[in-house]
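To whoever is on call:

I kicked off a structure prediction for a single chain this morning and the downstream step that reads the tokens threw a length-mismatch warning. I double-checked the sequence; it's 177 residues and nothing unusual in it as far as I can see. Pasting both halves so you can look.
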Amino acid sequence: MMYKTSMYLNLEMLTQCAPETLQAQPVVEIIIALGSNYQAEKYLPLALECLATLGQIRLSTAFQNPDFTATLEQPKPDYTNQCVHLILATPMSLQQLQQTFKNLEGDCNRCRQTDSNQVRRVTMDIDILLVKLAEEKNSLSNKSISKTTSNWTVMADRYPFKAHEAAGIEELAVTGV
């Protein structure tokens, strides 16, 4: 389901948190990066179909990028990357989302290879870039107290974003995340 809402993101001004500090926090919106370097035409639509069951999604353009770890001696297949803005139908903890995405990677036949000499075939990689936490309610006044102006939090382990992630986030923000 596609929708339009407005969002302004000044990434430098947003709070950065390590994911482990937010594990139990209720998340209402999320921006994730999808990546595939093997049968992306099959696995990206499958992942998007599964993500749409969690709420409303909007997509950035899919970009094809060289694997930044490739060398002349060890060439690697290009990645297809896309950012997704997901408004969750039901708030979930960050920990629940991480497990859901890990399961989704598995549903896309992701195999985590341990042999570093082998070319990695990544059917689906899902990285959490930004989360929007639920607003806290003050039980005495029943008024919302926002932790930050926008409530968006950058996952510190993903920042600074890779070029394709920043481009995807910017496109989502400009078109109305």
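Update from on-call: the warning came from a stale cache, not from the record. Cleared it. Sanity check on the structure: Residues 1-6, 138-149 have pLDDT under 50 and may be disordered.
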